[in-house]
Each structure stands twice: as structure tokens, then as C-alpha cells.
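If you are new to this repository, start here. Below is one unmodified record pulled from the training split, so you can see the exact layout before writing a loader.
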Amino acid sequence: MVGHHVFMTYGLGDSFTTERTMQAFARAASLPQVMPMLVPDFDVGAPLAPPVNGNIIINSLPFTQAFRQYMPDAGDDGHFVSTQTTQGRQDAVRFMLEALSGVVPPIGS
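And here is the target side for that same chain:
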């Protein structure tokens, strides 16, 4: 089995991917949450303090797998938090750049 890094952004008020869908995916994929917790807990365990990296071990190798919630800016749809919010953009860019460079990427800073 080969492992993969997984970072799921969870934007509140997402009209494209509903909160119900995001919650179901996070539970089904057993993704832990990276703080802050912006909506009530939905049975994914206690949130982890950022930065989170290498939190899952597969075949003795560390992988980062988690989700983080973001509040969209006023007037923006929550679907675009990874590109339209400062924190979401910083987290997504850092995660992708480090993963592409072969480093175990962090979620949060």
C-alpha cells in the first residue's frame, strides 16, 4: 500500500460542496481536524494543534492527512477558501510546495 498526503480545505458556507458532504468525507477518510474548530464537532476526534505533519504512518513512512476549516471573507463563497482567504492560501501553497519538493508537508503554521 502506498501512502498519500491529504489536505482537505473546509470552507464554511460552501455552496458547491455542502458541509454535510465535507463532514461525511472527513469521517469516511478518517481525517483528523487541524485547529481552529469553526463548526461544532462532528465526531472526528479532538482537533490537532497546527502545524500538523507526518501524523499518519503508512509502511513506516510519515504522511500528512487532515482537514482544516476556514471562514470565507464577507461576500465570498466558502468553496474558494484555499485561494481567496489569506490563511487558506498560505496553508495550501505551503502544503503543495513542500509535498512537491519531497518534504512531508505541514498543515498550518
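Two things worth knowing about this chain: The CA atoms of residues 39 and 81 lie 15 Å apart. The mean pLDDT is 95.
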